[in-house]
Amino acid sequence: MKFDEPGRKASLIAPELDRELLLIDARRELKMPSRRLFGKQLISLGGLAMLTGCSLSDNKSVETFLARVSRLNDGVQGWLFDPNRLAPTYTRAEMTRPFPFNAFYGVDKAPVVDGDDFRLKVSGLVASGRAWTLTELYALPHAEQITRHICVEGWSAIGRWGGTPFSEFLKRVGADTSAKYVGFKCADDYYESIDMATALHPQTLLTFTYDGETLPVKYGYPMKLRMPTKLGYKNPKHVMEIFVTNTFPGGYWVDQGYNWFGGS
Ligand SMILES: Nc1nc2c(c(=O)[nH]1)N[C@H]1C(S)=C(S)[C@@H](COP(=O)(O)O)O[C@H]1N2
Ligand SMILES: [Mo]
Fold first, then answer.
1. Which chain residues have CB less than 5 Å from ligand 2, an ion?
2. What averages of pLDDT result for each successive group of 10 residues across the chain (264 residues)?
3. Number of domains, the chain
4. Atom in ligand 1 nearest the alpha carbon of residue 105
5. Most buried of 18, 26, 207, 229, CB within 10 angstroms?
6. Are 142 and 176 a contacting pair, CB within 8 Å?
């Protein structure tokens, strides 16, 4: 189905809609981390509309359509996600220096958390919802990784993070690993959530250090969840609370239209 077939266009898109904008949006949606979804053959917009059961007749329905495409991508990406496939790792010589800072605000606004008073809250579908001090967290098994962080804003950088495999932490809190989501609340207004398969992936680390030093404020002190299998925005910094749930928690950018699965 093509939009430039004269008879069809009118019935698919109301004239007041900016057709070019819609196409840009849809192309971005198809191109983003989710391109794998449809493999080499990009499915047509019409075909997608049929798959998602949307009629593209006004602004509202186009929004619903794009949201459904994104959620459809989540499902397929989740299904394609191979829990045993590892993201590439790098050498120390390949690290990007300085490693970039990014947040929805400038670096001077990064939240300063007092480590002495800090308690990591744990809630939801866990056997033990007790809070953790940093000393207790630092005593967990340690792992290091040098991986590439990819930001959808168009940059990527190789960094070195140290911390504990997130699966170890989930085991210790007695998380219900058959639950669908792990959610994160941050010291700024950021929040995120991930699928359980990624939470248990061997390269998913709850990190407390950057390049061998205590994680600096700009990179997310006191901790950042680091997942080389996911795009930058999925990696929450300044984590204050972790919860396990079957209720879709969304995320800061996801709730503004970014794809939730966010695979890299
Ligand atoms: N709490 C919090 N976490 C966040 C963000 C944020 O604004 N607040 N931005 C995300 C985005 S878009 C990116 S690219 C990375 C940037 O991490 P960095 O500053 O260590 O490079 O953090 C992610 N995690
Ligand atoms: Mo990002």
1. 151, 232-233
2. 36 44 56 46 62 71 77 82 92 97 97 98 97 98 96 91 98 98 98 98 98 98 97 97 98 91 88
3. 2
4. 7
5. 207
6. no
